[in-house]
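hey so u asked for the seq, here:
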Amino acid sequence: MKRISFPSVAGLLLCLFGLSELTTWYLYAAAIVNIMPTRMPVGPNSSLCFSIVGFAILLMDLYPSHSKSISVGLAIPIILIAGSTLLEYISQVSLGIDHLLLTVRIFDSNPHPGRMSINIAFGFLTIGFTLILFSFATRRSLALLTQVFILCTLFIGVIALLGYFLHLEFLYSWYRYTRMTVPAASGMLLASSALWFVWLRSENYTRLYEEKEEQKIIQLSIIILAGLACVSAFAGFSVVSIAGQNSHAAIIAVSMILASILIGITLLYALIMPMLREITESRRIALGNNERLTSIFENAAEGIIVINAKGIIESCNSMAGKIFEYHTHELVGNKLEILMPERLRKEHKMGIQRYLKTRSSHIIGGHTIEVLGLRRSGEEFPLQLAVTENVTVGGIKFIGMMQDITHRKLVENELSQQAFYDALTGLANRGHLLQNMSALIVSAQQGFAVFYLDLDHFKQINDSLGHDAGDQLLCEIASRLKESIRAIDIAARIGGDEFVLVLQGINNSDTAAIFAEKIQNAMLKPCHIGNDEFIISTSMGISFFPHDGADCDALLKSADLALYHAKEKGRANYQFCTPEMNLAVKEKNVFRDAVRSAIDKKEFELVFLPRLDVVTQKINSFDALLRWHSEEYGNIPPARIIPLAEEMGLIVSLGDWILKCACEQLLTWDRAGFHYYNVTVNVSPRQFIHPEFAQSIIKIVNELPVVKHRLELEVSESLITHDITHALDVIAKIRQGGVLITVDNFGVGYSSLSCLSELTPDRLKIDRTLVSGLIAGNKNQKRIIDAIVVLARNLGIRVLAEGIENESQYKILVEAGCDELQGYFISHPLELDRVLPFICYVNRETTTV
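ran it, structure tokens below
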């Protein structure tokens, strides 16, 4: 709702005043003098003009956007009425203007009833020109004239009222038989005052006189000019009074007033306007500089705050307000302390006081520091701050330039998190663990214990419930570990389901056992993953610094060895590292070196385990098995070689060597006339997940075309189900190259049946654990094998059973419908020189070798 203003009230009063006078004239014109002989009425035409003026002022104040059309439209009738009246006085000729409004004769001596007095006509004429100039005063000369007209109207009313007050008739009666009545003079005074307020709020005035100094100068000049007009008016009125108030004397009085106004305007234009132009130019230059500085200040990418020596904020830019979540006007005048955490405010206050005394500070001087800020919401955040001192006439000012570095800190923390912490559990990673352990070893103030933890049977849970459930379980275990240790201790996840705890100040088995029991109990609480609930145990190996190792690697290896010992003892327990275990570690390291040397010297060889076709009762294929005949360690089976090769990162090169040897042997047999025998090579997990595994197989097949459809690769069931998508992709590429696929260890996994239809391998190899359970009366074990055979038959897959040790197992598997059999009951692994004679013996074939 628009607030009621003085111009609106004044305009409304003038409208009501004019309309009431008009109404009085028309209703009581014949008897108005007799009824109220002492009343001095306002003429009908004057009343009409007051109504129009009041209406114009009211509309211009209420609707400033339409003030131009309003002022011009309503000024025209006012100028016509007042101008015609003045013309009648000057020409002494009646134009009948009065008779258009009222024809009743009231004053017999006045031949023109209702005629407005000459001073009223002059006042309305100035009001009319003022209304027109409101819209066209776009230059300062016109603006000056506008203000002169308003003040002339004001002084006309004031002079008339002074005449009544001082009993000087010539001040309110400029011509015989006419006078400006008290109501009319009051109306002129009210109208000029309202017009002055409307002018001061108009667009042209605020645009032409933007500075307060300019407004003061121009208003003072107008007052001086109006004073000249007033003095000339007194002189003119005196002339009229002396001359007997004839028309010529009135003309002389008006001419003197106009001449004085013109002289005043000329003087003002000559003296004041250059001064205003100089002020304007200076202001324009200063404004330009100030705008540039303000633009730089406001648009700076950094927050800027200026405070005085008392710590009061004197100015700040919008960026500073944005950083602290305030509007700039809310900050100005407040203490800087509201922008910092409460615990830092006392230190800040003392710092300013100390600097003012000593002129020494590690903060003030332009170099940047990092401090904590406080937002309006109460949130603390990091700031990068640079403070400089500026000595001015008003005293010492401190200018602070700041940046919100919250995002940068988050990025730094994220990078630190990625570099030093496990992405899944939030625990320290291996790098951070080794860094902290090294720091503890260097300080060597006290001993500490290293707990090496491994979750029991985690792989089975991961395979059966999926990797997402496995990840949730790892996060739950990590949370329990953190709750089980102290704040000074270290918890880390170093891979898979392996965790390491470093407990400071623990250097004996009794204290370590207390923590171990606490951790065991925490692990045995039920875990809820989705709708499943289960309990998972953990095995732990514990080593001590410096007893079990003087560096990180030695301590971790000792703890790992103790962990291995805990698993050998049935899992779900903890074991301490012993000297015997350390000796075993050293022996293992020696053995690792021997394996590396054997690979370099190519001391390995292949032996071949035959497969028997149940239908033909002939040998149709061989499994290529790795053997190492060491002078120091004797005959070493693959079960000891392959894990070490994987651990040492040599499995890929060793696997390639096995594949090439097996393929070259196929070529040798083919040249000897044995064209129908396949060779199977077992693939290790590390070898299978190598990015170039499929390409290396296809390359070997392309180099030796004879092995196509005769080379088989054995892939374990668990390896396929670990990452089904990757496994299907690799196997599809290999099969396109003409290589056969056998799924090994079938029947002991959890998820292989779901992907068997997509995989469609060439063979399923029933795991030896199922075969070994075939004893008399064990119907469940046989039913499992029967189910596997039926499933394979329906999918068109051949079935191979391994680990046949006796005739009973042989007969059961033949009755079950297995296609191929393998085991010591048929043959032990054969060295290369015994393979072909064995084939000839079993299959009754001849050889050229």
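The two ends are 115 Å apart (CA to CA). Residues 4 and 62 are 9 Å apart (CA to CA).
lmk if thats what u needed
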